[in-house]
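Long-time lurker. I teach an intro course on protein structure, and each term I like to show students one example going from raw sequence to a predicted 3D structure in token notation. This year I'd like something fresh instead of my usual example. Would anyone be willing to generate the tokens for the chain below so I can use it in lecture? Attribution to the forum is fine with me.
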Amino acid sequence: MTYEEAERYLIGLIDEAQSRHRGLGLDRIRALLRALGDPQDAYKTVHVGGTSGKGSTATMIAAALTASGLRSGLHVKPHLHALTERASIDGVAVSRERFAQLLDEMMPALDKTNDEHGRPTYYETLLALAFTYFAREGVDVAVIEVGIGGRLDGTNVLLPEVSVITSVGYDHTDVLGDTIEAIAAEKAGIAKADVPLVLGVERPEALNVIEAHAEAIGAPVRRVVDVTEVTPYGGDDRRFIVRTASARYEIALPVLGAFQRRNARTAIAALEALPPGLRPAPEAVERGLGSVVIPARMEILSGEPAIVLDIAHNAEKAQHLAEALREHFPERRLRALVAIGQGKDAHAILEALAPLVSSFVVTSFRAAGRKSLAPQRLAQLAQQFGVPVAAIDRPADAFALALERCAADDVLVVTGSTFVVAAVRQIALERGTAVRG
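-- Reply from a regular --
Happy to contribute to a lecture. Here you go:
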């Protein structure tokens, strides 16, 4: 099997008529993993969920573990440019050749599972491939990001060393429920008896639900705000000191945004909750977090104008983005290029950005199994906030128009769906635009 054949097989699993609910539940993924020899049990794991911040927090935890000398796997989603990004070891994604080889070797197990439980989904297949890759490569520990929710997510087959919930907000309400309490209950499902549960969650109504569940099943809770203290230093907002009961960490993050400082604080709390054999020394945590790379999370591409790439596909992420833009570009004129998927709270996303930007260009995206909100509908929503807006169907054309409208000192913010951010990032990098640290 070639990588192109593997990619076609996986994309073929995405059926727009398929309910998202078909992808939730543990029977099928358990059967698939059983047929593969339960690779997820071959190494220690850290399980990271939450509405926002989970991918960045997972990446920071993995970077610190790698810096400590452990062989560490990382599974995050979605990918930006290639399916191989879903499984990396020590910061290096699985090669295309190995990816195709692994999927080819998984086919008998996939067929067996299909006969008994139905064809494993796109997400389940990628997850099982990552688990298998980590087992074959002999990682010491793998950091695994939750897909949707937690209780019924395919990753919840794990018995981790530490569970983490970064935040609770409104997203995937069609699947998880339309109240904070209902969403919190789903995310609380990753808690396990006697496994430390690290909570970066701040909403009181969410904390009440999660902590009640944790107490009922015997999962010891560590609130990040209770076990860490943060102070800035050095006059740089990416430099700060995190103190805990046992250590002091002098952190210099290469990524922007107050929300990333919160993610770093959560990562440190999670790392300190690991058993002694896995827990990195403070120096390793400092090195790991100091070298972390998180594409499309407040990522700046150099040029005139500067381009900020940030995936903000729900209201909470959009609020974090707005907070970071206020912090880092208080005197610059901001313009925005946005595309948003159907089913997302587009009104709330645009509302968070509208007070900061002088204009919107709204567009669409193409992705298997995902539908974009029509640019014309996005334009109608944006107009409610009194911000000039142009609707352009193709992302490449929208990007060209947005650049044309920018002065050299402007900042162009590209945000919303992963798919539009990835498309624009690819165009910019192909033009030779450099990533600025």
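Some talking points for your students: Residues 177 and 183 are 6 Å apart (CA to CA). The radius of gyration is 21 Å.
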